[in-house]
Hints:
Low-confidence stretches of chain A: 1-25
Number of domains of chain A: 2
CATH class of the largest domain in chain A: Mainly Alpha
Strand content of chain A: under 5%
Shape of chain A: elongated
Structural class of chain A: mainly alpha
Mean pLDDT of chain A: 84
Oligomer: homodimer
Number of strands of chain A: 2
Largest sheet of chain A: 2 strands, antiparallel
Radius of gyration of chain A: 21 Å
Distance between the termini of chain A: 38 Å
CATH superfamily of the largest domain in chain A: GntR ligand-binding domain-like
Strand order of the largest sheet of chain A: 1-2
Amino acid sequence: MTNAKAIEVKTDxxxxxxxxxxxxxxxxxxxxxxxxxxxxxxxxxxPGDILSGEVAFxxxxxxxxxxxxxxxxxxxxxxxxxSRPKAGTRILPRNRWNLLDPDVLAWAFAGEPDIEFVRSxxxxxxxxxxxxxxxxxxxxxxxxxxxxKDALAAxxxxxxxxEAGRAADRDFHNAILQATRNExxxxxxxxxxxxVNWTTQFKQRSRALPRNPIPDHVRVYDAIAAxxxxxxxxxxxxxxxxxxxxxxxAMKG
Amino acid sequence: MTNAKAIEVKTDxxxxxxxxxxxxxxxxxxxxxxxxxxxxxxxxxxPGDILSGEVAFxxxxxxxxxxxxxxxxxxxxxxxxxSRPKAGTRILPRNRWNLLDPDVLAWAFAGEPDIEFVRSxxxxxxxxxxxxxxxxxxxxxxxxxxxxKDALAAxxxxxxxxEAGRAADRDFHNAILQATRNExxxxxxxxxxxxVNWTTQFKQRSRALPRNPIPDHVRVYDAIAAxxxxxxxxxxxxxxxxxxxxxxxAMKG
DNA sequence: TGTCGCATTATGTCGGAGTAATAAGGAGTA
DNA sequence: TACTCCTTATTACTCCGACATAATGCGACA
Lengths: 253, 253
C-alpha cells in the first residue's frame, strides 16, 4: 500500500508541459504518464501494489481525474497496470510489462537500470544483431551504405562523449536493421538502441574508456559493403561481445 | 481524408461490452480501441489519414467524447496515431507502430495479415528461437522440462485442429523462452506466439496438413532435456524452417 | 506580393453526477 | 464452529457541459 508518497507532480507554476520533453505525450497529462511510468519502473511501486483510489490519487497529484484516467489508460496499454472496479489500479507483475515499448525502455534506463535486465538486453543484441548484419550484407543497397557511412563519419567527428556521437552510433545500428528489409526486426531498434546508448554513456561516466569502438564498427561496415554475410555476422558478433566486456569491466571498476 | 466511412461501432442495443472479448480493455470504451485498432491495422486508414474532428468523430461513433479520447490515448501509446491541437488525429507511418505490442499483433492477425509482415516474423523466429533453445538447454531446470512435457502431451491429446492444441503449442514455445531466464527474450513470446498460431491455423484452413509437427517438437525437447545446446539450436532451426516451408506451400495451394 | 495579426477551430483540461460492478462484511444455516 | 448466501458500500466506469489553450488559415495592411 505504498501509495502516493512523494510523487511530486507539483509542476510548479505554469511550466507544466516542460517536464516531459518527449514520450507518449508532450501534452500536459503526458507528464503524468512519465512520472508514473518512471515511478513504476524504478521500483517505487512493486507489482501488486495499489494506487489508492482514483479520486484520492488525482487529488494528491493535483490534477483532474480526466488527466489521471487518461494516464492510467496509457499505462494499461503498455501492460504496466490494470484497474478493476472495486480493487483500484494495481501494478501488474513484470512479465506482463511491455518491456520493448520505447517509452517503457526509456523509463527503465532513466534511473539506475536493473543489471539483470541490461544483461538480458545484451544477450538479445548478441543474438539479433549478428543475424541482422548478415541479412543487411545480403540485401543492402547503395543508400543504406551511404547512411551507415555518414553515421560512422559523425561518430568519428563527435566522439562518443557527446550526445551527437551517441546518436550517430544508434543511427549506425539502426541503418543495419533498416537494410534487413525486415519490419519485425526493425521494431527492435528501440531496445537495441537503448542498450547501445547506455553502454557508451556508462563507459563515459566511469572514465574507463578502454578501447576505441570505431574500428569494430568499420569492420562491420566493410563486410556489409562487400556483401559478405558471414564476415558481417562475425564482425558484429565481436563488436557486441567487446561492448559487453567493456561494460562488465566498467561496472566492476 | 477518408474519415469515418463505415466504421459502424453501433453496438446494437445493450450488448456493448461483448464486442471486445480480450485486449486492452474489456470495458466499454475498450471496444472502441479494438475497433479503431482493427480498422488501422487492416488498412482501412492509411498512414497520414486524419480521423476528422474529435467531436464530429465521437458523434458518428455514438460515444461520448471522453470514451473516444481515452481510446485515442491508448492508440497513441501504441504508436499508431498522433493527435495535435489543430490538425486532428493522424495515422502515423508504419515504422512508428509498435508491432510487437500484443494487441497490435492481434489486430494485425485478425484480418488477412500482410504476407510480407508474416515473412518478417518468421525470419525473426528463425533468428531468435534457435538461440533461445540453446540457452534453454543450458539453463533449464526440472520445472521447465515438466512444463514443456505437459505442453507436448496436450498437443498430442488435442491435436492442432483445436484451439486447446494451438494453445499448447504456444505454451511449449513460451516455456522455452521462460527457460532462457532472459526477460528481454521473454517479451518476444507474443510475437512468436502469433506467428506460431497463425501457421497452424492457416495450415488447418487450407487442409494441406502436410506433416505431423509433433516429432519436430519432441526432438527439440529431447535436446533441451539432455542439456545439449547445439542440438537444441539445430532442432529448433529445423522446426522453424519446416514450419515456414509448410506455410509457403499452403499459401500457394 | 509578402508579412503580420486576428479569428476560427479543434484539442486539452476540468469538476460533477449517475450507473454498474465488485469485494467485503454480515446474516443465516448446517 | 464453519460455510454459504446475500446485502451493502466503496470504487471505477461512463457521460456531460464548460472553459482554457494552441495552432492553423484567412484577411488586412504595408
